[in-house]
Amino acid sequence: MCRWLAYSGTPLILEEVLYRPKHSLIDQSLHARMGVETTNGDGFGIGWYATHARTPAVFHDVGPAWSNRNLQEIAGHVRAPLFFAHVRASTGTAVQQTNCHPFRHDRWMWMHNGAIAGFHLLRRSLLLGVDPALFSSIEGTTDSEAMFYLALTFGLDEDPPGAVARMVGFVERVADQHGVPAPMQMTIAVADGERTWVFRYASEGTPRSLYFSRRVDDLRALHPDTDFLKDVSDETRLVVSEPLGDLPGAWNEVPANTYGVVEPGRDLLDEFRPQLP
Question: Which keywords does UniProt give here (predicted)?
């Protein structure tokens, strides 16, 4: 499938997270431990919010992340308080820039690991559910982007958890109408520049792996000699497909069929249930 990370907190040079940890996302692009595939080399993308801009910047390429000099150059010079990064293993759609995550629409960023089972059978019916005013903004051919535009259609601007729940409910209903069982397998991150929402869900069975970092003050107590922890605020958080290192006690698994919110002043984990739109 794919591997991804979402960072929120003290503005940070991207390479601190993308390259420097022992099991960084760049390492995971070649040596994933918890994914369906070990190698995630079918393109990559990063997206970040600059302090002066309302909408995020994105950079995509179709080659593997581990050998991309432009990615390393950008990561060494861009500092941001909220950023996404994603390395892709295609589930059947083309390897092209428009299929690379994160996807962007206005102030929103979206990335996904997983798949809609039988997407080639469901694609037309799913895309007919997208608001006609949004349809022309779809650039690629992935199930992930279709999910994003369905969530936008079902109210992402006003109610992100509800919009994602309605998106999943719609996908499951369409799949049932086409005789496709247990269609949804997903971990999702979506952000508006101030907050990040994450979701871990499967229609059946165990969802793909997802972890969040512990509170920084707890980590400082556990690992007082770790330099990185001295320079970030207590509200700094990472959500990742798999842990970036082996610091004991640093990572908590996001429970199955759960969503979370990371925002200044509070974090939240709650049950995720699909809804019919």
Answer: Glutamine amidotransferase
